[in-house]
Structure formats: C-alpha cells, structure tokens
Request: fold
Amino acid sequence: MAKKKDASKPPVRKAHSLAHIEALRSRRTSTIDRSMTQPSRFTCVNIAVAAVVLLIAMAVSFAYSMGEFRSIKEFNMQGSRILTGIYGAEDFEIVDDIMFISSDYRDFLKLELGKPLEQRIAETTKQGCIYTASLADLKRARDDPTVQGSDVYRPLNTIGFTQPDFHPHGLGVFKAENGSFVIMVVNHRRDGEFVEVFRLDGPDSTDLIFKTSLRHPEFVALNDVSPVNSSSHCRDNHVSLLHIVPRLLVVSIVRDFCLELFC
Reply:
C-alpha cells in the first residue's frame, strides 16, 4: 500500500529551492551595483592617459607661444662680430645713441626641490648690474677686432641702493628735460617683485643714483617695464607663472598670458 503524504510537514526541497533562488538574485543584484558604482581598471587607465596627454599638449602649446620652436634666420650678418664681456645680458634700450643693458647671474632660477624662489634669491651671492655702451664704441668694436668688450661696456655703480638683492630683468629708460636719464628696472628680490627707479646724470656718468622702489599687488613674476615720463608712472608687463597648470590651460586656450598695468 502506498504511503500517504504527511500534510503537516513543510515542503523542505521547495523551500530550499526558493531560498537558493533569492540568494542568487541578491548576489547578482549586488554585483551589478558594484559594477555601476565602481569604475573599472580600464576606465581609470583611460582617464590617467587622457590627463597626461592634456598636460603634455598644454606644455607644448605654452612652449610654442613662448617662441621655443621658432627658428631665427640670420639677416645682414656680414661684418658683424660677437662682443663678449657681459654675463647674462637680459634687456637693452637705446636712448640718444646710448645703449643701456641689464644683466644678471640667474643661478637662483634653477629649480631646487624644497627651496622656494625667495630662499634661492636670498642664498645667491652673485648680483646683477646695469651697463652702458655708446653706439660709436659698438661700431668701432665691430670694425676693429682688437677692441674688446671691456673697452666698450661700462658698469654703473648703484648709489644709495641698500637692498641686498639686485637682479635686474627688463628695463626702460626715459630722458628728462634736464638731460639726465630716468632708468626703471625690474628687480627680483627675496621680499617680492619691484621696479627700481634710478637716475643717471649724463651719458658719461657711471653713478646710478637710486630714487625709489615701486611695488604693486599685481606685480607677479615681472618681466618688463616702460617708463612713460620722469615721474613714478610706468607701464609694466608681467607673466604670472606661479600656478603653472591653470596658466598653461589659459595660455593654451586664449594665447594671451601678459597683463599690462599702468602705474
């Protein structure tokens, strides 16, 4: 005789089957959730590669805008010669047949990990200088190979300038009505960026008389200065390179990285 099923016992096999199905469903759901919330390794690599390529493109664009890939062609170089005697000549301006030249040993511009620019400036022992040279002497040196740079360039002595740092960059010259020259020069100091104002009493003088120092909150990585008159007014251009990545992005997009100030 066949045994009757005991209705009081639960369907054990069916219950286990339902629990197993629910567990599989829950595991599958959690796997899908993790895949949606966590980026894959392939995606992270793509993002990293794209970021590196973008930085390289911005760096190349910045270098191009600074003229790194431009070729300089010789133009009417016959009869010219290289006249040595100045280390690190940076800028020059000619006024009344007198060439004013700024020069400096820019060792402090070499990057050193852990040393900010202000500290490197404070630690350098070499200072810059302003030179003058007459166009007549320069022409004589061009035509006479026995004339040396020391016969042409005249270093100017700073009188009354007591700051420990003198690192001239760009300079501008203005001739006053009394015949003296007002010289404004960008100076990178340990306490910031300044425009130093000097006076030269004549083309034959070698005394650069200090007048005043100009400073402005917008003076960041100053590059050049152009005096408008003999007073403290000037027109300054500066290149802000402190935040290199944002600046590279701006340069890459707008190609304009100079800020012109009128003081």
Observations:
- The radius of gyration is 35 Å.
- The longest strand covers residues 181-189.
- The longest helix spans residues 12-37.
- Residues 158 and 211 are 11 Å apart (CA to CA).
